[in-house]
């Protein structure tokens, strides 16, 4: 998302009558210039020395006269800084940036009908690859080589000051608008983003099953900036290396560059396809899986000068048609819905559409260009392009922070916030981005620009460390009192609803680690195709109580252990993160679906082939499929096989879905728990399977539903509490804390015995 350098070219790249000579033949070896001859330094004249005269009695030296004096050479003037490469400014490219940021902003605002607006990021990647490679080509043309220090200095002063400023401002706003626990997470995210490794940080968080459902980070959008910076770090070295290889092997430079781009494009695209099938966050957020889109722009930088020289009427009509097709295709991509499998082959659509738009306007600097180029070159689109980088930086933090402070926003409100972000974006562009980019002092030497980049990195790092340390120090200071005041007696059966404020147990800062008592490795993780089948508790004459399902089943481990203890038997754990006991194809990735299918089949066979269980307990997340009828149908094959086992079967209704990070909210709401309550109407999803079991449709199958304890019904606008009786109910956006399950355990055990016995 970098803008082309606006300089008036003496000879715009891509308008030469023939293929540039520098691309066809290797540069000849030029002999090194001879070293300048320095004039001799005059020596003082000395009188002859008397034989045997000691040194201290030598005759004094005679000082040179003006006739003897030869002035020493003047110190060499410092070399003038290398001029920036001259690239013809293309107003349609500026407008294309404006279109890209408009798609992204409207998508984040939730505008109806723009469910694929995230493809604007793909447009940015292709444009960045085109612009950066055009600059490298121009530098080789103008200076017979690439000055890497100058290149990185230009990138620093173009990108880092504005990006660092927004990170600092986000920390400041977050300190005011976010609850304490969210500030710690924000500080961690800013640290990664300031070092331009935010994409890898968010990959790690989104592949962590327990954190994937949390609230969005205010700096999540910096993932794309991290991808760009990593491309800028690597591509110039590949470019220079290809030219050096061409010189060494005495082959055409185009051949070497084409070979490097072919390897980069093919390798990155293959990796993108593979990761799309195996790890969706890695495929979407990583730089290796996105490099092929930058490479597509680099191909255009090499090929468009040839395309621009095709001036025949058919060639002009073809370019015009390509532009129209590209614009329509990009609009279609922005309006379609892609539930899964992105980027993969889906990303080819916006990538090729952007390439078509760039090719259509390849001769815009000297002609009016086709219709699409004229549309993109309008004053409004160019102005949006000028502000595209800063608008992209500002709009997302404001949307997230406003929503965090005032609750979920309707799309018109989100749109108003996003449009309002144009204000700080324009000010940042006017007073930070452009002045520093054009500053004579900063651009005088590469080291000045690099120093500016270091400063723009160190400042947000320092602010983030300060923000996180202040919150953590505050939490540690009063932690002991809160911990003591918030203890809950496991013997309590009923929640004390007279409380609506005060400390809770577990403390919000500890909630993420308040997990069920499951041994290491006993709960299968995402890539596992088989459960270890851990058994806990004392075995008896009866078979074990089997707990079967996903993480929403494993959260009941404490209650199931108490149940098994009353039955004099053990617990066999067959649970898997993200894999339901129902026959559902998980949409995150094909490989995960295959692992889940293999795990489910293995677990069912072990239940069928092993000793008859004393009891089978099944549960699961009630949100894998959109429609209740589909969810009910997916349970039938599993329930049918479990009923045939002959053991009593208990179906535990899923817990309410807050769909927000409850501990984050509660870390700033201990004075009023109701601020973190959520609507009962959205928290409870229709469960037709539970209705069938309650109606007796399945033999020896019983329903345990503790929903009314977690979310008491109280009128049409009832809300579900985040805490009851000093107990924090949720450890994230959907899972119960083990403390809450422990308090519910007596009710759970009583409900099972009342039906099964």
Fold and architecture overview:
- With 757 residues, this protein is mainly alpha-helical.
- The protein has helices spanning 21-24, 91-108, 119-143, 148-177, 180-194, 198-206, 222-249, 253-278, 280-285, 291-308, 313-335, 348-360, 371-376, 379-406, 411-420, 422-438, 446-477, 479-485, 551-554, 557-567, 590-609, 628-645, 662-666, 680-683, 688-694, 707-710, 738-756, and strands at 535-536, 545-549, 571-575, 615-619, 649-652, 678-679, 701-704, 719-720, 723-724, 727-728.
- The strands form three sheets. A six-stranded mixed β-sheet has the order 1-3-2-4-5-7. Strands 6-8 form a two-stranded antiparallel ribbon. Strands 9-10 form a two-stranded antiparallel ribbon.
- Strand 4 (615-619), helix 22 and strand 5 form a beta-alpha-beta unit.
- Helix 20 packs across helix 27.
């Amino acid at each position: 998302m970098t803008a082309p350098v606006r300089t008036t070219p003496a000879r715009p790249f891509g308008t030469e009558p023939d293929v540039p000579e520098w691309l066809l033949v290797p540069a000849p070896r030029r002999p090194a210039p001879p070293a300048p001859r320095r004039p001799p330094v005059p020596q003082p004249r000395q009188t002859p020395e008397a034989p045997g005269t000691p040194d201290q009695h030598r005759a004094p030296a005679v000082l040179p006269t003006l006739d003897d004096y030869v002035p020493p050479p003047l110190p060499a003037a410092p070399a003038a800084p290398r001029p920036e490469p001259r690239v013809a400014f293309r107003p349609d490219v500026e407008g294309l940036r404006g279109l890209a940021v408009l798609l992204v902003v409207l998508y984040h605002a939730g505008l109806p009908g723009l469910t694929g607006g995230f493809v604007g990021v793909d447009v940015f990647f292709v444009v960045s690859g085109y612009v950066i490679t055009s600059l490298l080509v121009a530098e080789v043309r103008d200076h017979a080589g690439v000055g890497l220090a100058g290149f990185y200095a230009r990138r620093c002063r173009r990108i880092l000051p504005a990006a660092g400023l927004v990170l600092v401002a986000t920390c400041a706003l977050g300190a005011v608008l976010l609850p304490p626990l969210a500030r710690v997470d924000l500080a961690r995210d800013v640290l990664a983003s300031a070092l331009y490794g935010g994409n890898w940080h968010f990959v790690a968080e989104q592949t962590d099953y327990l954190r994937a459902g949390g609230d969005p980070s205010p700096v999540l959008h910096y993932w794309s900036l991290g991808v760009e910076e990593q491309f800028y770090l690597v591509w110039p070295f590949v470019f220079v290396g290809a030219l050096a290889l061409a010189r060494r092997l005495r082959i055409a430079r185009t051949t070497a560059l084409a070979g490097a781009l072919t390897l980069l494009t093919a390798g990155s695209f293959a990796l993108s396809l593979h990761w799309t099938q195996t790890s969706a966050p890695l495929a979407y957020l990583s730089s290796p899986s996105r490099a092929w889109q930058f490479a597509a722009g680099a191909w255009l930088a090499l090929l468009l000068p040839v395309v621009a020289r095709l001036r025949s009427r058919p060639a002009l009509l073809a370019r015009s048609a390509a532009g129209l097709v590209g614009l329509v295709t990009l609009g279609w991509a922005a309006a379609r819905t892609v539930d899964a499998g992105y980027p993969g082959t889906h990303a080819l659509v916006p990538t090729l559409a952007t390439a078509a738009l760039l090719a259509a306007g390849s001769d815009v600097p000297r002609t009016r260009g086709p219709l699409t180029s004229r549309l993109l070159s309008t004053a409004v689109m160019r102005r949006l392009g000028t502000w595209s980088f800063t608008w992209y930086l500002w709009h997302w933090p404001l949307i997230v922070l406003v929503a965090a402070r005032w609750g979920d926003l309707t799309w018109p409100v989100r749109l108003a916030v996003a449009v309002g972000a144009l204000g700080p974006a324009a000010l940042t562009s006017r007073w930070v981005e452009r002045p520093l980019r054009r500053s004579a002092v900063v651009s005088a030497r590469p080291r000045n620009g690099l120093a500016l980049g270091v400063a723009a990195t160190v400042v947000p790092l320092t602010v983030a460390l300060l923000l996180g340390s202040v919150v953590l120090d505050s939490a540690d200071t009063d932690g002991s009192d809160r911990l003591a005041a918030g203890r809950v007696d496991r013997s309590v059966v009923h929640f004390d609803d007279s409380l609506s404020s005060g400390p809770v147990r577990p403390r919000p800062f500890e909630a993420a680690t308040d997990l069920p008592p499951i041994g290491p490795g006993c709960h299968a993780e995402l890539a596992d195709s088989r459960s270890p089948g851990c058994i806990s508790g004392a075995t008896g004459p009866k078979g074990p109580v089997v707990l079967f399902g996903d993480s929403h089943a494993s959260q009941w481990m404490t209650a199931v252990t108490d149940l098994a203890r009353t039955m004099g038997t053990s617990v066999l754990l067959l649970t898997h993160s993200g894999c339901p006991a129902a026959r559902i194809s998980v949409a995150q990735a094909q490989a995960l679906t295959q692992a889940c299918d293999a795990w489910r089949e293995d677990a069912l066979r072990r239940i069928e082939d092993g000793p008859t269980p004393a009891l089978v307990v099944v549960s699961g997340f009630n949100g894998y499929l959109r429609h209740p009828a589909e969810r009910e149908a997916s349970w039938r094959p599993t329930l049918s096989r479990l009923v045939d086992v002959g053991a009593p079967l208990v179906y535990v209704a899923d817990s309410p879905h807050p769909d927000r990070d409850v501990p984050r909210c509660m870390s700033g709401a201990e004075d009023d728990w109701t601020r973190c309550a959520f609507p009962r109407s959205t928290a409870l999803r229709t469960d037709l399977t539970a209705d069938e079991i309650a109606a007796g449709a399945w033999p020896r199958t019983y329903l345990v539903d503790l929903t009314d304890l977690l979310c008491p019904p109280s009128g049409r606008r009832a809300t579900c509490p985040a805490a009851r009786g000093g107990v924090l109910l949720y450890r994230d956006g959907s899972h119960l804390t083990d403390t809450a399950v422990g308090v519910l355990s007596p009710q759970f055990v009583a409900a099972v015995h009342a039906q099964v016995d």
